C-alpha cells in the first residue's frame, strides 16, 4: 500500500530570480514532486512573490499570488509569514488543509501552525568572509531554523556534514540536484573552442582567478562567461581584464536560454568552475553529461559531485588552475565517457522521489 503523501505549501517568493542553481532546482523538482504528491493523495501549493514564478507548473499545483518582493529582505521577512498563514487558514477553512510548509530561504517565518521543512543549498554567509556581525547573525538564524525544522534538506553530503558539525539539525535528508534537464549533443572539434563558465557572475564564483589564469598563460583558450551578473561583478572583472591586458580574451555572454547551452557544452575546450564556495554545482553534471573536459576548484561540494579523478585546484592558486585546465583539456575520451556515465546517475525524478519522502516524513513523523 502506497504511503499517504502530504499537502505541501511551498514558499516560492524568491523564485522569480534569474536562472541559477536555486531556480533550476525548483523548476525541475516542483513539477515532478507535484505529480508524486497527487499520486499519493496529497498535493502541492506555491506562494508566489513579486515578481511571480516564471517557469511552468502543472495545472494541479495551486498558485497563490502575493506582494512579497524577493529582493527586499527585511520587508520580505515581515510579509512572508503573514501571507503563508493567510493561505494556511483559508485552506483549512475550505476543508483542504496543508500538512507542511516548505521553504528554501532564510529567515524562516515563525509561528507557522504546521511543521516546516527547509532546503539549504549552501552555507555561504557562515563560510565566506562576510563580516563578523553578519556571520554571527547568519549562524543564529540558521541554528534556529534547523532546530525547529521537521527536516532539514541538504543538496549534497558536503552541506549535510557542515550542518551536522555546526548546527545539530533534528533530522536531515539529502536531495541532490541533477543534470538531465539539457539534451546532449555530439562533441564538436573546434581549434578555437573556448573555456566555458556557466553560472552567475558573483564574488563567490571566484571568476577573477580565471582572468588571472589567462594572463599567466597566453596559450590558454579564450574565456566565455555565461550567466547573469550580480552587483558590479561584471564591471570589476572587465576592469581586471583590461588591467591584465586580456580584455579581448574574456567574453561576457550574459544569461542565455537553455536552448543555447547544449551547443556551448558540446564545443567547449574545457568547462572551468573555480568557485570559492559551492553547495552542489549543477554545471558539473551538465558538462560531464556532455562529455566536456572539466576542471574544478577543490572548494565545497564540487569534488563530491564531479568525482575524485577530475582535475582540481585550490581556489586561490592561479598556477594550479592553469595546470588543471591543461590536464582537463587532455582528458582521454574513455575517461570523459566514464564521467558521463557517473553524471547520468543523477536524475531529477530520483531527486523528486527523495524530496517527496522527506516531506512525508516531516509532515507525519
Q: Which spans have pLDDT < 50 for at least 5 consecutive residues?
A: none
Termini Cα gap:
18 Å
CATH fold-type name of the largest domain:
Rossmann fold
Query: How many E strands?
Result: 13
Percentage beta strand: 5-15%
The CATH superfamily of the largest domain appears as: Glycogen Phosphorylase B
Strand order of the largest sheet: 3-2-1-4-5-6-7
CATH architecture classification of the largest domain: 3-Layer(aba) Sandwich
Taken from the alpha-carbon principal axes, the silhouette is globular
- Write down the Rg: 21 Å
- Please work out how many helical segments DSSP would assign: 13
Number of domains: 2
Largest sheet, if any?
Answer: 7 strands, parallel
* Secondary-structure-derived class: alpha/beta
Helix content: 40-55%
Describe this structure in words.
With 365 residues, the chain is an alpha/beta fold. It has 2 domains: 7-178 and 347-364, Glycogen Phosphorylase B (Rossmann fold, 3-Layer(aba) Sandwich), CATH 3.40.50; 195-343, Rossmann fold (3-Layer(aba) Sandwich). Helix content is 41%, strand content 15%. It has 13 helices and 13 strands. It has helices at 21-39, 73-93, 124-127, 132-148, 157-166, 208-216, 233-243, 261-267, 282-289, 302-306, 318-329, 333-343, 348-364; strands at residues 7-12, 43-48, 62-64, 100-103, 116-120, 151-154, 172-174, 195-198, 223-226, 250-254, 270-273, 294-297, 312-313. It has a 7-stranded parallel β-sheet, sandwiched between helices. A 6-stranded parallel β-sheet has the order 10-9-8-11-12-13, sandwiched between helices. Helix 6 (208-216) crosses helix 11. The longest helix is centred in the first third of the chain and has 21 residues, at 73-93. The chain is globular, with a radius of gyration of 21 Å. It starts with 6 loop residues before the first strand and ends with a helix. 44% of the residues are buried. The model has no long low-confidence stretch (mean pLDDT 95).
Amino acid at each position: 500500500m502506497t504511503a499517504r503523501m502530504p499537502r505541501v505549501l511551498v514558499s516560492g517568493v524568491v523564485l522569480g530570480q534569474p536562472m541559477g542553481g536555486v531556480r533550476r532546482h525548483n523548476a525541475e523538482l516542483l513539477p515532478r514532486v507535484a505529480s508524486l504528491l497527487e499520486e499519493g493523495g496529497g498535493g502541492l501549493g506555491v506562494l508566489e512573490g513579486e515578481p511571480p514564478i516564471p517557469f511552468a507548473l502543472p495545472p494541479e499545483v495551486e498558485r497563490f499570488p502575493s506582494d512579497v518582493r524577493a529582493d527586499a529582505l527585511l520587508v520580505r521577512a515581515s510579509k512572508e509569514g503573514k501571507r503563508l498563514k493567510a493561505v494556511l487558514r483559508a485552506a483549512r477553512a475550505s476543508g483542504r488543509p496543508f500538512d507542511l510548509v516548505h521553504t528554501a530561504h532564510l529567515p524562516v517565518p515563525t509561528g507557522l501552525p504546521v511543521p516546516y521543512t527547509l532546503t539549504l543549498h549552501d552555507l555561504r554567509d557562515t563560510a565566506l568572509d562576510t563580516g563578523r556581525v553578519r556571520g554571527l547573525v547568519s549562524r543564529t538564524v540558521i541554528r534556529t531554523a534547523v532546530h525547529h525544522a521537521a527536516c532539514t534538506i541538504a543538496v549534497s553530503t558536503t552541506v549535510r556534514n557542515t550542518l551536522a558539525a555546526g548546527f545539530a539539525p533534528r533530522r536531515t535528508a539529502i536531495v541532490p540536484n541533477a543534470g538531465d534537464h539539457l539534451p546532449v549533443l555530439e562533441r564538436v572539434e573546434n581549434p578555437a573552442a573556448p573555456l566555458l563558465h556557466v553560472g552567475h557572475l558573483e564574488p563567490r564564483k571566484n571568476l577573477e582567478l580565471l582572468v588571472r589564469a589567462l594572463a599567466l598563460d597566453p596559450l590558454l583558450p579564450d574565456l566565455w562567461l555565461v550567466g547573469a551578473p550580480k552587483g558590479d561583478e561584471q564591471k570589476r572583472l572587465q576592469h581586471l581584464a583590461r588591467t591584465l591586458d586580456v580584455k579581448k580574451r574574456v567574453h561576457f555572454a550574459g544569461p542565455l536560454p537553455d536552448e543555447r547551452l547544449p551547443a556551448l557544452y558540446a564545443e567547449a575546450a574545457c568547462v572551468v568552475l573555480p568557485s570559492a564556495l559551492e553547495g552542489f554545482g549543477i554545471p558539473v553534471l551538465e558538462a560531464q553529461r556532455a562529455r566536456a573536459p572539466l576542471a574544478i576548484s577543490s572548494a565545497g561540494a564540487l569534488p563530491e559531485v564531479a568525482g575524485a579523478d577530475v582535475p582540481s585546484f585550490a581556489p586561490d592558486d592561479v598556477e594550479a588552475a592553469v595546470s588543471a585546465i591543461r590536464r582537463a583539456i587532455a582528458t582521454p575520451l574513455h575517461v570523459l565517457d566514464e564521467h558521463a556515465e557517473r553524471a547520468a546517475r543523477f536524475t531529477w525524478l530520483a531527486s523528486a522521489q527523495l524530496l517527496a519522502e522527506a516531506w512525508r516524513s516531516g509532515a507525519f513523523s
